[in-house]
Design goal:
- One of its GO terms (molecular function) is L-pipecolate oxidase activity.
- It comes from Mycena belliarum.
- It holds the Pfam family DAO.
- It is a single chain.
- By secondary structure, the protein is an alpha/beta fold.
- The chain has a single domain (6-424), classed as 3-Layer(bba) Sandwich (FAD/NAD(P)-binding domain), CATH 3.50.50.
- 24% of the residues lie in helices and 26% in strands.
- The strands form six sheets. The chain has an eight-stranded mixed β-sheet, sandwiched between helices.
- The longest helix has 14 residues, at 60-73.
Length: 425
């Protein structure tokens, strides 16, 4: 049993999973605080309709960890019906030579013995879908179906985890945005909040997602991460249309970054592009800061016009019969992107083991909600292997760019180019 007083800043995927894991390990004094007055936070990346749950990674570390997460997701006693094993259709351009992200992912999935169906031409890809579902021609594409993957109801998973933490006597306090770390010498001893509240602790865990860089600009992290906004849109299907597309797999095109889910219980279909995204730089420091419905209630959910067209063009390539339906909602979903796509988990090297970072989700952390807290807890307890400690270290020097977004360039958000209601029709 550990009595170390622990404060976790942020109630998203990293923060909640870490709190739950520490409590399960016998830590007795764990508090989570969040700037949002309501939880789950309405503008948090972890609070959404759905998230892809896949093992298909080019890096075996994430593939194997995702397999562990899926085994946990399948436990209905713990997670109810949060996870939906629809299968994930992984696509990419047909290539004659060289291993790209899709091919590396395929080999990793095969190595783990998963239920994999190779799809070597457009006809094979089309046959993955129900016969009554109109689909595109998938010209020049190859891919595979991973039957051991699917999607999760993201908001539901977060709500369940909040309840689990409360059941273990963990404390969760809303409406406490942090403005300052309190330090004594090289030790971090607490935080000061916007309302003047001070929380003291033996251990501070920063799990503030896309707000990390802007909330803690004075903590030296070597610019390893930044906030980027990713474009999302939704269409509303009728009940009849929903039934037609209900049993489709998640479609994930590694070549373009486009992905689309089957309709949820409300017959909403969400689509997005996993890209380099947009920065929103503010103030003299030019630190990218999330721009959401909380900071701009009128236009915080709008995406650039160019991306509305891009999403519709991609939609037409997969589901042509849906391509002319209006977008009923859009959103810039803000990620904390690391330079290399790896997470940032571990002690800050200058904190004498009093300050931990658990962030840098890079758009691929939610699927690990049941297990990512184990990594953070192991890092705190110095139980991670040397290679994983180095891979996730706060002060690492990235050796390569994020392989899932090679060739894509981040852009600064131009507020004059945001979409209008007419653009969504």
């Amino acid at each position: 049993m550990t009595h170390r007083k622990t404060l976790i800043v942020g109630s998203g995927c990293f923060g909640l999973s870490t709190a739950f894991e520490l409590l399960q390990r016998g830590w007795t004094d764990v508090t989570v605080i969040d700037k949002s007055d309501t939880l789950p936070a309405p503008d948090g990346a972890s609070n959404d309709l759905n998230r892809i749950v896949r093992t298909s990674y080019s890096d075996p570390f994430y593939s194997k960890l995702a397999q562990d997460a899926i085994e946990s997701w399948k436990n209905r006693e713990e997670w109810k019906d949060t996870y939906h094993e629809s299968g994930v259709l992984v696509l990419g351009e047909a290539r004659d030579s060289g291993l790209d992200y899709k091919q590396k992912s395929y080999l990793n999935d095969l190595e783990m013995g998963l239920r994999i169906v190779p799809l070597d031409d457009q006809s094979a890809i089309q046959q993955v879908f129900p016969s009554a579902t109109p689909v595109g021609d998938f010209f020049h594409h190859t891919g595979y179906l991973n039957r051991d993957s699917g999607w999760a109801n993201a908001g539901q998973g977060i709500r369940l985890l909040i309840d689990k933490i409360a059941a273990l006597n963990g404390k969760i306090v809303a409406g406490k945005g942090v403005v300052q770390l309190i330090e004594q010498g090289l030790k971090t001893t607490g935080v000061r909040c916007t309302d003047g509240t001070i929380f003291e602790a033996d251990l501070i865990i920063i799990a503030t997602g896309s707000w990390t860089a802007s909330a803690f600009p004075n903590v030296p992290t070597g610019d390893i991460f930044r906030a980027t906004g990713q474009c999302i849109a939704m269409i509303q299907l009728t009940e009849e249309e929903g039934d037609r597309y209900r049993t489709c797999p998640v479609v994930l095109d590694f070549e373009t970054g486009f992905y689309i889910f089957p309709p949820n219980e409300s017959n909403l279909v969400k689509m997005a592009v996993h890209s380099a995204g947009y920065t929103h730089s503010t103030g003299e420091s030019s630190i990218s800061t999330p721009r959401t419905i909380t900071s701009d209630s009128d236009a915080g959910l709008l995406i650039p016009k160019a991306n509305v067209k891009e999403l519709r063009d991609h939609l037409r390539m997969v589901y042509p019969a849906l391509a002319d339906k209006p977008f009923v909602a859009t959103r810039l979903c803000w990620y904390c992107d690391s330079q290399d796509g790896d997470w940032v988990i571990g002690y800050h090297p200058q904190s004498q083991e009093t300050l931990v970072f658990a962030t840098g989700g890079s758009g691929h952390a939610y699927k690990f909600l049941p297990v990512i807290g184990r990594l953070v807890a192991d890092a705190i307890e110095n139980k991670l292997s040397a290679d994983i400690t180095a891979k996730l270290a706060v002060d690492r020097v990235p050796k390569q760019p994020d392989e899932s977004r090679v060739g894509r360039v981040v852009q600064e958000l131009d507020l004059s180019q945001l979409c209008t209601p007419e653009d969504l029709q």
